[in-house]
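Protocol step 4 of 6: structure prediction from sequence.
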Amino acid sequence: MVRLLLAAILALCLSLPALAQDQATLISDSIEITGDTRLIAEGNVEVYFKGRRLAASRISYDQATDRLEITGPIVLTEDSGEVLILASQAELAADLSEGILTSARLVLNRQLQLAANKMTRVAGRTTTLETVAASSCKVCENNPTPLWEIRASRVVHDEVERQIYFDNAQFRLAGVPVFYIPRLRMPDPTLKRATGFLMPSIRTTSDLGTGIKLPYFIVLGQSADLTLTPYITARDSQTLDLRYRQAFATGLITLNGALTRDDLIPGKTRGYLFVDGAFRLPMNFGLTIKGQTVTDPAYLLDYGIANIDRLDSRIEASRTRRNEYISARVISFQTLRESEDNTTIPSIIADLTFHRRFSLGPLGGEGGLRFQTH
């Protein structure tokens, strides 16, 4: 099988000025130039353009219209091998900035796949998909139904704003419709920070059954944000998770918590709250804050939050230097063990530590002074 690389490069330079300006390279088994305006490449066709690779079985370029007709299977990948688009047929502008693809799949940052009957590219910025199924789950021949997916009549992906807009969105769990939203907006996986829905997740346990989590991220200015995550399970458990983060000039603080109503402990509102903070103090001291509380001993394990049997809340100021360590802290313990009772174990402990290391001078070696009190 002959690979007509050199002839293809020359043909591209003559026939595809838009691509030639960006040093496009075409490789194929055969190339035919018909008349003065049409170039046809067939058999294992590959086009390398702007750091991307387009593979197809046939590409036809019409110089008069500056359009490409591509016969699939079509695969567009980055140099890294990351798949961007798959399709069966396409009609595109020569620079690939606009056009129509049929039976297409759009893959975003290796995290989200959108499969559609038709995909339309406009001005190199927006991609519109019709009759769409979106999921981050792997779909294969042996497992054609993803664990979760979003079905929509229409999806628009804005590459500049890095947002995804769904029309008539339907959430499905193992192929079964769970709930419906007329309009849904979520950031695409490449965007680090924007208000909107995040990727759903699925959790299955023996006590709660299968459930879905749908996080909603809220930007509260340049230095704070809030994430609210409804969590609904098949066994009538409703949970609202929250995470609040704020950065200050001298440190940051994070709050994680949840409120739950379930059948594991009927008639009771369950939940937890964890607080973590770290701040810089004058004279090179640091302040750390840690707070932990929970409504009942089983909650953290029931909801997969933490596998711990004691809660540790503390506030500590410390400083570490080359030959010196100073620490003052207050610690509060809450046991979750059935064999222990919080009324009979030390619940609050305070201690002060001073450690100084020094050279022994002419004697050689070094010595140390350590003072600690509880």
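Step 5 (inspection) to follow. The chain is about 5% helix and 60% strand.
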